[in-house]
Amino acid sequence: MNKHINLLLLASENLLRHRAKTVVVCLCIIAIVTPFITAISISDGIRAQSLVSVNEGGDLYLTFDEFGRNTSVPLKYLEGIRHIFGVKKAVPRIIGRAYFQNKLAVIVGISEKDVPDSVSCISGRMFENPDEVVVGNELARHFQLRIGDQFSMRGQQRKVFTVVGMFSADSGIWGASLLFMSFKDAGELFGRTDVATDIQIYSIPGHNAEIATDLYTLLMNEPYRLQDKHIIELFVKKGFLLKEGLFTALYVVAFALGIPAILVASGFGLSDRRKEIGIMKATGWNTLEVLELITFEQLLISLLGATIAIIVSILWIRVFNGAFIGQFFISETTLLPKFNVPSKFLPLPLLLGFFFAFLLTMVGSIYSSWRASTESPVVAMK
After folding, report:
1. What is the rounded CA–CA span in Å between residue 192 and residue 174?
2. Contacts of 8 (CB under 8 A, 6+ apart)
3. 49-58, 140-149, 171-180, 205-214 — which one is most confidently predicted on average?
4. Alpha carbons 179 and 107: distance in angstroms, whole number
5. CB count in 10 Å sphere of residue 68
6. Among 223, 164, 189, 173, residue whose Cα is nearest residue 96
7. Could you give the CA distance from residue 249 to residue 245 in angstroms, rounded to a whole number?
8. 0.70 cut: is pTM over it?
9. CA-to-CA distance for 306 and 252, rounded, in angstroms?
10. Distance of CA 296 to the CA centre of its chain
11. Which of 21, 34, 39, 251 could bond to 309 as cystine, CB 3.0-4.6 Å?
């Protein structure tokens, strides 16, 4: 045991003695590992926020089907749905897009009492009266809106809305460019007062099958689509896994390109290292001891580089708000997001970052060290 501890201490002394090589290899590790950790943490943060939204939503989602796509539900079926046994609440929603001057905004029309609990106003209040809206922080900042300001939307110039509240994107990134208004106002804005984009059905636990049967009877002659919370959750996870897969595929290319960089960086002072190994062999060291020393060196430098990469990743997200990388996972955002990019640092990506760093450094040094340790000490010291 003492021999291994001594080898570990000697490995740390070697890293301090070869400072230039240590710094260069650490920089290579940081450049390769930091984007991986940052991207995975952003993806995990967005997925966690999405799943919160799914969990707060209904147990069943009803839409109509047209050409294999979701389409609006006529409101004439709403009362019938509410009277189905097992239905606690049926919430119609209108979700669409409209231009707020030159900026595309997401419109959510819903009853004030059905607004999700995760949406909390940082100033003002939730809408209560006709023509009142609650605005996301990015829209409010972009147009310098204040409580009491009035505006009209493109396509419906005759309808004037009043800002009564603002909410932060901390309650969800979707709130950055979002407008909450009453269901009736949203229907008038889009010129469709007799339909909803979907109906959220909150059910008594264990009654989804009975509700589905009664809906089939109610909507027998209509092309409808019914999805439960579990299916929505699977779609959300699948979407983020797809984006993570695309990023991983691109990252593998960067990882492959990083191996030559590590090889070159590890080659600094290679002749000096061969002489050191030759002296070790001449003074009685065996090949396994030499390789163990090299492994300890790579373990320490990988731990150092991965730790700094994690710190840089945290600063990238917390200080620079995921600049240049956030838009890969959040569509329709800028290179410099104007809202707080969500993130979640889990143990597994951090361990994978350290594993990648250790693998790269071992690939860059173990073979050359083995070649030098198996040569004659006289040849190695030349």
Report:
1. 24
2. 296, 300
3. 205-214
4. 5
5. 7
6. 189
7. 6
8. no
9. 17
10. 34
11. 34
Whether 373 shows a pLDDT value over 70: the answer reads: no
Domain-wise residue ranges, the chain: 2-52+236-380, 90-196
Rounded CA gap, 353 and 34, in Å? Answer: 8
The residue ranking higher by pLDDT, 364 or 127, is 127
Q: Give per-residue pLDDT as tens, 226-235.
A: 998 888 777 7
Contacts of residue 176, defined as CB under 8 A and 6 or more positions apart, other chains included, come to: 136, 137, 138, 139, 169, 338, 339
Q: Which residues contact 89 (CB under 8 A, 6 or more apart)?
A: 58, 82, 114, 201, 202
Which amino acid is located at 361 in the chain?
T
Q: If pLDDT is split at 50, 70 and 90, which confidence band does 269 have?
A: very low
112 and 165 Cβ atoms separated by less than 8 Å: no
What per-residue confidence (pLDDT) applies to 272? 61
Give percent of the chain above pLDDT 90.
26
- The first and second tokens of residue 377, run together, are 């000490």
Contacts 24+ apart (CB under 8 A), 76-80: 76/194, 77/218, 77/219, 78/196, 78/199, 80/218
Ranges 44-58, 138-152, 160-174, 350-364, most confident: 138-152
Matching residue, tokens 């603002």: 166
